[in-house]
Amino acid sequence: MGFFSKLFGGGKAKGTPPTPKVKSKQLPSSMVAKEFGEVNIANDGRTSEISMTILMEPQGSGAEGWQTGMAIDASGSMEGVFGKGLEDNGGGSPPTNLLQQYQQRGWLTFIRHEGQDYPILNGDAKSDLVAKGYFKWTANVVEPVCRQVTAYLASQLDADGGTTVIYWACGDGSQIDVIGDLTADDCEMAKFEGPAKYPFGQGTVLTPAVRYFVDRFADAKNGMYIFMTDGELHDLEEVKKYTIKLCKEIAAKKRNPVKCVLIGIGDDINEDQMEELDDLDSGTEVDIWDHKIAKEMRSLMEIFAEVVSENQIVAPSGRIFDDQGTMVKQYTDGLPAKISFSMPASSKSFELEVMGQRIKQSVVM
Prior knowledge:
Layout: E1 25-26, E2 36-43, E3 47-54, E4 66-73, E5 86-88, H1 96-105, E6 108-113, E7 116-121, H2 123-131, E8 135-137, H3 142-156, E9 162-170, E10 175-183, H4 184-189, H5 207-216, E11 222-229, H6 236-251, E12 258-264, H7 271-278, E13 289-293, E14 313-315, E15 318-322, E16 327-331, E17 335-336, E18 338-344, E19 349-354, E20 357-362
Parallel strand pairs: 4-9, 4-11, 11-12, 12-13
Antiparallel strand pairs: 1-2, 2-3, 3-18, 5-8, 6-7, 9-10, 14-17, 15-16, 15-19, 19-20
């Protein structure tokens, strides 16, 4: 929902129950016109309230004092996408006596979860199974994505020309392994193979990673921190409480602005949790969280979809029309990067007219 959470305001007569807010829904990136960053819709059956952004990088980049960071989920479920998992190689199943040998050597242990025992192979056992031809290593699909995102942050936004990279959800699920501060050139060549200081984690605990960046860069004028994950957060309520506290401190000017973006990868993402954070009502105008699904992202610039300001002017003028061609809003003193307007709920699309062109956007999900 982004910066546009304060919809459906207005006074009520004393004693009249307030009209509940209609939840805003964010269009999937795959539906959004390439010129737009994010489109959110709240439809109460009579009116559609639209809030949207123009896709662009924040103004000023380094001049605005941005500090950037990327936190990569290193929970146990990520081993496979880091290239440390096993997949079928056509060699058949390993014999029982081999697994017994692994267990005797301490290479194979069991973790009990919800009444069932799950086998855990250490690196020696996995390497042996690969060497014997029973399995092959999975591909490291995380590394190319991390190289691209971190290099982009370092080169396009960070005030110091670098970005801080950490693994989170290590060890017991709450521990952090700091890779370090990488320049854009470093990022393009960096090895992203999983944590070295701790093993892959037994849980997915996000709060410590957020605290790490917020506390380390407390003096930065602006903070932009990306959190990559493949699954479900185990401390959602704690993250929400910490976020609300942070929002109130920022609103009171006790802290500088912070923006956090969750990027979901893989097929087991809990997008409901991501939306809960994205739509979190902190009781302030401050909005910290945004979320993206990696496979839906059209470009890396989408990580800035909620960072733009209504003070950023992208064109001298602009007009917005509903699907019947009726003008619903006009900007004569400059078209801002952040736009809000109303149109009939029956309208299935709108068009933005700018610089002699019209950009059409469907709102039917």
